[in-house]
Amino acid sequence: MNHCTSCQKALEGSWLVCTGCGAVQRNAAIDYFQALGQERRFGVNAATLEREFHRLSRRLHPDRFARASAEEQQNSLAATALLNDAWRTLRDPVTRLEYLLKLEGYAVGEEHAGKGKSAERQPPSDLLEEVFELNMQLEELRMSQKMGEAADEAVVKDLAATGVRFESMLQAVDDALAAEGAKWDTGAAEARTGAATQMIQLLDRRRYLRNLVRDVRETLGAAA
Ligand SMILES: [Zn+2]
After folding, report:
1. Alpha carbons 210 and 51: distance in angstroms, whole number
2. Ligand 1 centre from 59 Cα, in Å?
3. Burial status of residue 73 (CB atoms within 10 A of its CB: 0-12, 13-18, 19 or more)
4. Least confident of 33-37, 54-58, 107-111
5. pLDDT tens, 130-158?
6. pTM of this prediction?
7. Does domain 1-91 have CATH number 3.40.980.10?
8. Domain ranges in the chain?
9. CA 1–ligand 1 middle distance (angstroms)
10. Residue 90 Cα, ligand 1 centroid: separation in angstroms?
11. Could you report the per-residue pLDDT of 170-220, keeping only the tens digit for each?
């Protein structure tokens, strides 16, 4: 429970503004969920989140503080910056999930894989064969592009089909992340530990697949 720095009333909803005295709070420890007045969980109501963001944006707008003290102006600017970061992070399910895990003390991405040997560069073991094939197709197209030759239509077609397959895998990862997120939200300690382990692996897989899909798009774009 946090209290207003001005009137000491317990803060309700967003911790950025006191509903009692209206004072803008200056507290670097306010997390993104608290900034937007949300429970710390994966599942959020997208419409509520957006409405709250816009309401707070207006409430903290610099125009409203034109005649306020320098300190109040500074507070509103800092709160606006925090609000914008919170909105950018929480509106997207994947960045929201990563943020939630980090808040709960889990290492995500390079933090747990180690820089350099980052998990996004090591193919998931069940995809080794397909990734090998994909890399051959990419290599072949890039080579013909480099030599200024017309791309082999069969290779372009194969690569496009592989790209579609990897995109559907990416979608499957997002679906699995949402399912694990729902398990997390039940709040049971054991369910949370299990879900976190799954989510961290899924996030690695997602980064890997996303890079592959981007490579395919770029190479196909250059071949078009
Ligand atoms: Zn207050």
Report:
1. 30
2. 15
3. middle
4. 107-111
5. 899 999 999 999 998 888 888 888 989 99
6. 0.87
7. no
8. 1-91, 113-223
9. 14
10. 26
11. 999 999 999 999 999 998 999 999 999 999 999 999 999 999 999 999 998
